[in-house]
Design a protein that fits this description.
Length: about 450
């Protein structure tokens, strides 16, 4: 009988080490051993040559249900599997069903469980009219974090949480050890800027960036971290498009506060003067895509260790909601699950940043952040065998051609990528073979934090 169920050999990328000629051995759905040199025996063995072997990604920010009858978990987790993402953390702003109670959490677990092809965790939020009263029951129901917003996109689906109420919520969350994540745009400042843009009659691609200048982000970022400092709650900025935001987060951490910050892949790839100008509404995202000089600042923060997580903020709006010539009339957000890892690896290699950052920022730190690291986030003995294999096969991305997306558009279409996702394994089972998603709907599992575990902050 074979020693292991599966053995993969290649260049193993860990969060703190690159193992040339390494291997990962799997038994009973768990990582059994990571080594170097000759492959041990196993029922299934693959010598992958120069391939990169990384931990499966945990995408910290996915919106599977933002548009009714559009994406759903059947498609978001298909894109995830094809992109080497083995766990998604889904946002609570579902159209028609804000996830703000234990009943809503359970409904979503049941709904997603029938469709998911990879594992999933959930965010919870509040109804502003109820306040923090249901936070405790959502913790018991298994949410991995909470999400709020300092800007109000919609009073029911994506409501603004005023400063005093945000403080109350943070105070209730603090004893649980979970994190309070916040959409970081100052409502008053954004609305004033929008008013100026409209008064000036600007409707082209420039309108969005002008309507949400960097100061609107930074005001909210400081509010979020000060609220965390005042309440003792781990405070998280869920997306930051400007370099100064990462310096602010770093300063709070240096003062001893639990202040984390997330960079979405679009802020590391797209820029305003080229991509937003070319794509219009298909590059409209809140906060906005910034100029190339700001993009490169973010990469320096990646290199310097000031970024906690890298995610997608994935949402697959139908094309008719992204093609209005009036820039501000378009929905905000883009799909990215299928291509996050290849894009990030490309960016790291181009800038000479160690590939260990990929394992750290897309797997280890997210697992710690959501308190899932008892089973997720690392190629480490005893952890789930969540693995992605990348091979050196240059290609130009085309979301429609892959067939793994509910929409055929992507702001990343046409980008040349040097490494391709060739295989994805979720708990030791292959869910993608480089061409076809093999996982059936319902094979993904709901994962939740263990409240009894000590807090291990992602830094």
């Amino acid at each position: 009988m074979s020693d292991f169920d599966l053995v993969l050999k290649g260049t193993v990328i860990l969060a703190d080490l690159i193992v040339e000629g390494g291997f990962v051995a799997v038994r009973d759905g768990k990582i059994a051993f990571v080594g170097q040199g000759a492959m041990p025996s196993g029922r299934e063995r693959h010598d992958l040559g120069s391939a990169l072997i990384l931990p499966g990604a945990i995408d910290a920010q996915v919106h599977s249900l933002s548009q009714k009858d559009q994406e759903d978990f059947i498609w978001s987790t298909r894109s995830a599997a094809a992109g080497g993402v083995t766990t998604i953390v889904d946002m609570p702003y579902d159209e028609g069903d804000l996830v703000c109670s234990a009943d809503a959490v359970r409904r979503k677990i049941d709904h997603a469980g029938k469709q998911a092809r990879v594992d999933f965790a959930l965010y919870g939020t509040i109804d502003p009219e109820e306040g923090p009263a249901r936070i405790g029951e959502m913790v018991e129901a298994g949410v991995a974090a909470f999400k709020f917003s300092t800007f109000g996109t919609d009073p029911k689906r994506f409501p603004r949480i005023p400063a005093a109420l945000l403080e109350d919520c943070f105070a209730v969350i603090a004893p649980t050890g979970l994190t309070a994540g916040v959409h970081n745009e100052d409502d008053e400042a954004v609305r004033a800027a929008i008013g100026k843009v409209k008064a000036a009659g600007i409707t082209d691609y420039r309108a969005h960036g002008l309507s949400r200048p960097p100061l609107t982000e930074l005001l909210a970022t400081n509010q979020i971290y000060e609220t965390g400092a005042a309440t003792g709650c781990p405070a998280h900025v869920v997306h930051c498009s400007v370099g100064r935001g990462y310096d602010i987060a770093s300063a709070y951490r240096a003062q001893g506060f639990r202040a984390t910050i997330e960079c979405c892949i679009h802020y590391l790839v797209l820029d305003e003067e080229n991509d937003v100008k070319r794509l219009g509404g298909k590059a409209k995202i809140n906060p906005p895509i910034r100029p190339r000089a700001e993009v490169e600042k973010l990469w320096r923060h990646v290199a310097d260790g000031k970024v906690t997580l890298v995610s997608t903020d994935h949402v697959s709006w139908s094309e008719n909601r992204k093609t209005n010539p009036d820039m501000l009339a378009n929905a905000s957000g883009v799909p990215g699950l299928e291509v996050m890892i290849p894009l990030f690896v490309k960016g790291l290699l181009e800038r000479g940043i160690p590939l260990t950052r990929a394992a750290e920022l897309m797997a280890l730190n997210p697992a710690r952040h959501f308190r899932l690291d008892y089973r997720k986030g690392a190629l480490e003995a005893g952890k789930d065998a969540d693995i992605v294999v990348l091979t050196p096969e240059p290609y130009s991305y085309d979301a429609a051609a892959s067939g793994n997306n509910v929409v055929g558009w992507s702001p990343y279409n046409g980008i040349h990528l040097p490494w391709r996702v060739a295989a994805t394994y979720n708990r030791g089972v292959q869910v993608f073979d480089g061409k076809t998603v093999l996982a059936a709907p319902g094979t993904g599992q709901f994962v939740r934090p263990l409240s009894s575990l000590p807090l291990r902050e992602a830094v």
